[in-house]
């Protein structure tokens, strides 16, 4: 088991090294002068030369790459060309809002997706099964940005029930002091017992969380249904039925536990997808997370910031894949 985890860890490090190499190469190939962006539009030749020296662009590429790799290992992703601030510090500011959104959506997808898959398998070829499969296929197939815009049209424009975007309303920002403890607004409101802001923020979380959770709900429901139907056809399930055991006990005690492995793997990998997929949703809902940070970086051609988010996303994927591999290895059948 330790050897297996070590091999997977080494493979993850190799993947990260590849991502760092590719991002470094792309940043040097793109026809742009980072020194000019760093020094400003009216910089003199002396200022441009000084900027190149500060950014290390006057060194050979192999030396630049070595320094870049060394800084990445230390957690230093460089400086933003737009703000001149450390990218790592900027990410610390924007990550909590995105992370809270992803966690809520992930929990909701788990709570809805697994029971939906279970009852779909239990009621195979019945109306509930057909509706569940139709919903699962639709949630996986529909473009996320279209779902986000459609929900805004219905719940904000037509029904006027939910806000169109942002974390909290403008009037709440003006009248109350927003708590800042962890950077996760709902959690900060709970820690400071600020229920007024919590209630307003909760309304703002509904649409983006539901939009992000649609894809993992469909994926988890389909995987749970498929795995459960396969298990229900096993010989030991037939033997349990022949002993006169109740269907409920067979489903929830004997069959379900053997489907949790594949479902947990899908959940883990979908979490990584959800983390990246949330960037576009955040832009649509004006969410102050990594999505808005990346959008600003792209529009201003802030390549170090874009690369920093790319490396962070790749690291999250590697960690989640490692967790999925460990979950797989926990199954004795897989180890054998």
TrEMBL record:
Family: Belongs to the binding-protein-dependent transport system permease family.
Residue ranges occupied by any ABC transmembrane type-1 domain in the UniProt entry: 95-328
Keywords per UniProt: Cell membrane, Membrane, Transmembrane, Transmembrane helix, Transport
Biological processes per GO annotation: transmembrane transport
Organism annotation: Lutispora thermophila DSM 19022
Keyword Cell membrane: yes
Membrane topology: Multi-pass membrane protein
This protein's GO CC annotations: plasma membrane
Stored CDD domains: TM_PBP2 (cd06261)
Compartments in which it is found: Cell membrane
Gene3D superfamilies: MetI-like
Main localization, broad class: membrane
Stored SUPFAM superfamilies: MetI-like (SSF161098)
Protein name (Swiss-Prot/TrEMBL): Peptide/nickel transport system permease protein
InterPro entries registered for this protein in UniProt: BPD_transp_1_N, MetI-like, MetI-like_sf
Segments passing through the bilayer: 9-30, 101-121, 133-155, 205-221, 264-285, 305-330
